[in-house]
Amino acid sequence: MTDVDGVVARLVAELGDRVLVDAPFGEHTTYRVGGRAAAMVVVDDHESLSRVASTLAGTGVPVMTIGRGSNLLIADRGFPGVIVHLAGDYAGIAVVDETVVIAGAAAKLPVVARTTVGYGLSGFEWAVGVPGSIGGAVRMNAGGHGAEMVDSLLDADVVDLRLGERTIVPAADLDLRYRHSNLTADHLVVGCRLGLTPGDERKGQEVMAEIVQWRRANQPGGQNAGSIFTNPADASAGELIESAGGKGLRVGSAEVSAKHANFIQADEGGVAADVLQVMIEVRMLVEYAHGIVLQPETHLVGFTDDEMPWRS
Ligand code: FAD
């Protein structure tokens, strides 16, 4: 058995009030449902990160990173381990060599999009409407509007939280595919380099304005985590769900959005079990109607294999 309490006590001794014991994990996600974690450590500089990595190394205590929590569904029972959240020094953005941008993992995607356009660079406008962080976007190979991280990512600065080792990993070694990378929960992205192209600032601003307008018109606000399922080859998960009659499907405190069928809205004070059940029922509806089995894009944490038909 792993000594989670012992590890949390050591983290508190090392980092003091940057460790939140019995942290409300679910509240830090955009769904705002789900349970607690044994601890959340807010890491804002390299020295703290080394201490966290050396405390966790070799312990076997479950660990994972949370960025902006915009692609996560946390089980109501919570997560019996330590979550790491980068902040402070890790939110920086710098332009080097004219078209190469270094972005910290905690930098917000819309801020990186606006900053790079402000520097007269093109290639990251797509990210203006994605409410995640650079770290989460590398892990997910996030994308939209015809572009994705892999198009501009040169390399990522990755710390292995189990081994305490830091490596610059070339993008080609991350197996970046549609909403996929080979990074696991043990890998903490602390930053990356993006290769962009010289562009026209006014044109970039126009592109971003159009994207923001499109998102407002087509995607709901409120408590959700964006697309719940990935698009199957040559099909839109949202259209499949809508034509299968899934729009508006409700289980307790969660409902398929009336605005976008691939979004699930959670009610204020809702529970993760209802969101999961809506996912399961929507998936069955689509399989029955179209013979297509949808796969989740949202990362589910703290659920058992038996609870998830797709074993994510
Ligand atoms: P989190 O949700 O915090 O984490 C997601 C995964 O990444 C987890 O496995 C987590 O452990 C891991 N992770 C987070 N930070 C790190 C790190 N520093 N190092 C290593 N692993 C890390 N996604 C798209 O791709 N395209 C879209 O157009 C899009 N639109 C969205 C619209 C809305 C309204 C919402 C709510 C979400 C949308 N998303 C979209 C989903 C989400 O914003 C992206 O997947 C985003 O990249 C997740 O970043 P995050 O920081 O929130 O990650």
What does this structure look like?
The protein has 312 residues and is an alpha+beta fold. The protein has seven helices and 18 strands. A five-stranded antiparallel β-sheet has the order 6-7-13-11-12, with helices on one face. Strands 1-2-5-3 form a four-stranded mixed β-sheet, covered by helices on one side. Strands 15-16-17 form a three-stranded antiparallel β-sheet, with helices on one face. β6 (93-96) and β7 (100-104) form a beta hairpin. The longest helix has 19 residues, at 272-290. The chain starts with a helix and ends in an 11-residue tail after the last strand. The chain binds flavin-adenine dinucleotide.
Topology (elements, then pairings):
Blueprint: H1 4-15, E1 19-23, E2 37-43, H2 46-56, E3 63-65, E4 72-74, E5 79-86, E6 93-96, E7 100-104, H3 109-118, E8 121-122, H4 134-140, E9 143-144, E10 147-148, E11 153-160, E12 165-170, E13 187-195, E14 197-198, H5 201-218, H6 237-243, E15 250-251, E16 254-256, E17 264-266, H7 272-290, E18 299-301
Parallel strand pairs: 2-5, 3-5, 4-18
Antiparallel strand pairs: 1-2, 6-7, 7-13, 8-14, 9-10, 11-12, 11-13, 15-16, 16-17
Helix pairs in contact: 1-2, 3-5
Flavin-adenine dinucleotide binds next to strand 3, helix 4, strand 9 and strand 13.
